[in-house]
Every structure is written in structure tokens, then in C-alpha cells.
């Protein structure tokens, strides 16, 4: 749960609820490709969409081509704040369960209007009853359930996860609202000296002078549980040498430690 209330100008916005199992949050209405049609249908078929991506002759034509097109996903029951409408059945929204850019207003993007239903009100700052009480062990258990799952850029559902999506989804399972992207996730954590990393902390990675580009979960000294990149799967492993070279910071998730609550 967020530390404070979500503040939204209801004179300019209205609420809606996602009414399909999983839908995409796209950069703009022109982002989808013909191969993405199954996810755009009024009754989206997420599995058929993924199968179609994986059937493409190159990663660039399939999953890798989602880069700069597909920012995140929304799942059934998730509330959104409607900020505008576009032609051809698109709605511009912000997703408050996915804090973004230092704000609780929520991750912005475009979603198919048919995938939403209007709502008079919605729990913007609180997730439904979680599966377990938030703790380091519960977080690690939730994340490990996805070992072997294929990487999906923008994915936050059990059908596909990117690196920050693995962190976000595993915490959401515990009822914790946590940012969607790696940079925002680091900002939400307590900074910890790298040698002091403990299981349940987060490893963050960046090239010199560049923004954070990867996040993984610490499971032991030098061990990482993460969703590496397109074409790979969620894995728990000793930190590979290329990752060691770009390890930049460690963050501690406050919601998993009683002294922060």
C-alpha cells in the first residue's frame, strides 16, 4: 500500500476498470503491428498473441519488436484513471497500481477502450487481499514461481515478465504497490552498499553515464533471480560476468521490513 493517498483531479479525469484478463498499455495508438492483432481484439487472446510473436522468423519481428511500442500491461480488475480518448477505439489512461516517474498518478499509456468498463470509484491506493503477508521469504517464493518463464518486454502477468515486471508482479502478489520500471523501483528503495546486499534486496545495473537498464533480485552472495532479456527465461544463477561489470547499486524494499512500516 502507498504511504499516502493518490491525488487525482476528478474534474479532469474519470475511472475505469480493466475487464479482460490481460491487455497492453501501448506507447500510442499507432504502436501495435499487424502481428499484435490478437491482443487488440475486443476479447483479447494473450496466449495466441505470444504464440504469434514466437512464430516470427526473427526476435525483431516478434517479442523484441515490442521495444518502444509496448510499455506495460494491465490485468483484470486493475483500476485506471482515464485522461483522454482517441479515435479508433483507444483510451489514454494512467495506471495508479504502477507508480511511475516519482508519482503515484500511475503509468501512462494507451489501452483499447473495449478492454475497460466505467467505474464510479475504485481502490486506487490499495490492492485486493494479497496471497501472503509481505516478507522477504514470501517475495522470494513468489518470484521463484516464475523460473523458466520467457521474457516479455512490458510483461507483468504470469504469462510473461520483463526484469522489472518480475519484481513488480511478485510484490503485487503480496499486496504491495511498487513502481513498474527499474529506475523508479530504485528510487522507492533504501540505498544499500553493494557488499551489504541481502536476499530480497534488488540489484540494479547501468552502463557508465547511462540510466538503469536492468534489475534483479538478490538470493544470496553474488546470486541473482531475474528475467534477463528477450529470448531468455527467468533464472536464478550466480551473477554472470557481464552483469557484474554493470552492477551499480543495491536497493532494499522497505515494505518487506518491519522497521520501515
Automatic annotation (TrEMBL):
Family according to the record: Belongs to the peptidase C40 family.
Swiss-Prot/TrEMBL keywords: Hydrolase, Protease, Thiol protease
Gene3D superfamilies per the UniProt record, alphabetical: endopeptidase domain like (from Nostoc punctiforme) (3.90.1720.10)
Protein name as annotated: NlpC/P60 family protein
InterPro entries the record matches: NLP_P60_dom (IPR000064), Papain-like_cys_pep_sf (IPR038765), Peptidase_C40 (IPR051202)
Taxonomic lineage of the native organism: Bacteria, Bacillati, Actinomycetota, Actinomycetes, Micrococcales
Example GO biological process: proteolysis
Native organism: Flexivirga caeni
Pfam families recorded: NLPC_P60 (PF00877)
SUPFAM superfamilies on file: Cysteine proteinases
PROSITE patterns for this protein: NLPC_P60
UniProt keyword annotation of Nucleus present: no
Domain NlpC/P60: 133-254
Molecular function, one GO term: cysteine-type peptidase activity
Amino acid at each position: 500500500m502507498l504511504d499516502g493517498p493518490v491525488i487525482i483531479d476528478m474534474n479532469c479525469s474519470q475511472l475505469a476498470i480493466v475487464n479482460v484478463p490481460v491487455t497492453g498499455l501501448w506507447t500510442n495508438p499507432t504502436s501495435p503491428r499487424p502481428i499484435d492483432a490478437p491482443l487488440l481484439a475486443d476479447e483479447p487472446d494473450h496466449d495466441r498473441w505470444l504464440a504469434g510473436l514466437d512464430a516470427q522468423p526473427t526476435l525483431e519481428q516478434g517479442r523484441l519488436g515490442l521495444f518502444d511500442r509496448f510499455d506495460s500491461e494491465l490485468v483484470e480488475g486493475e483500476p485506471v484513471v482515464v485522461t483522454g480518448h482517441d479515435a479508433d477505439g483507444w483510451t489514454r489512461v494512467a495506471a495508479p497500481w504502477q507508480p511511475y516517474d516519482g508519482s503515484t498518478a500511475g503509468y501512462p499509456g494507451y489501452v483499447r477502450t473495449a478492454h475497460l468498463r466505467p467505474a464510479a470509484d475504485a481502490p486506487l491506493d490499495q490492492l485486493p487481499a494479497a496471497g501472503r503477508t509481505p516478507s522477504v521469504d514470501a517475495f522470494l517464493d513468489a518470484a521463484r514461481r516464475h523460473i523458466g518463464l520467457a521474457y516479455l518486454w512490458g510483461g507483468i502477468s504470469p504469462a510473461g515478465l520483463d526484469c522489472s515486471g518480475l519484481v513488480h508482479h511478485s510484490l503485487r502478489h503480496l499486496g504491495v504497490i511498487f513502481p513498474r520500471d527499474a529506475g523508479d523501483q530504485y528510487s522507492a528503495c533504501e540505498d544499500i552498499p553493494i557488499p551489504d546486499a541481502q536476499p530480497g534486496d534488488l540489484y540494479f545495473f547501468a552502463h557508465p553515464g547511462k540510466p538503469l537498464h536492468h534489475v534483479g533480485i538478490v538470493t544470496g552472495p553474488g546470486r541473482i533471480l531475474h528475467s534477463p532479456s528477450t529470448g531468455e527465461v527467468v533464472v536464478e544463477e550466480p551473477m554472470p560476468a557481464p552483469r557484474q561489470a554493470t552492477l551499480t547499486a543495491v536497493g532494499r524494499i522497505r515494505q518487506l521490513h518491519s522497521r520501515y512500516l
